[in-house]
Amino acid sequence: MAAQVLVVEDEPDIRDLIVLHLQREGFQVRTARNGADALRQVKASLPDLVVLDLMLPEMDGLEVCRRLRRDVATASLPVIMLTAKGDEADRVVGLELGADDYVTKPFSPKELVARVRAVLRRARPPEGPTAFSVGGLSVDFGKRQTAVGGAPVALTPKEFDLLRALIEAHGRVLSREVLLDRVWGYARAGEIESRTVDVHVRRLRQKLGAEGRRIVTAKSVGYRFEEAD
Ligand code: CA
Fold this sequence. Notes:
By secondary structure, the protein is of the alpha/beta class. The protein is built from eight helices and twelve strands.
């Protein structure tokens, strides 16, 4: 079945351009012209991915992203942001809020389609072991679900990928650079600040509650996962 993409953009020319290229590549596309409409549509029927412009009337894209991440039902929904060229602050904030990737305007539709494919590919269930549990923590890699003490935890796609990378390292320390590469992708590793990793780790620890202590800081290097109680 074709993946469904919700495109949120108020400028008709840009919106039409994105829709055209996504449809041409076989995606099912829906559109929203503002943040409130986007949130309504997502609630009514969950798409596979959202392409979200930051510059929207009334509620901006950052706020839309923040609200998606706050809701358990949409916390794991992949989001690609469209940001203005040179607006590094927006990009950093967007990634910290849980966007999965970004494309800078003016963009090539080809690049956007490639990003959509890459994010959807990473969101797919992986091969290999499908589940992991230690102490009160259980992770289903196939369904991308996490629970602590039996209660579901709403992780964003990046928080989930981060947890998975740490678990799969079996206690080895992973540097911020390695985590950037594994979780955000090689192409982005040079552009995204390592601070983004720290922000995600902090949030991941908070969400895991008592099990958050398993993510151990290796001073000035990176992080590792502690299996021992
Ligand atoms: Ca716009």
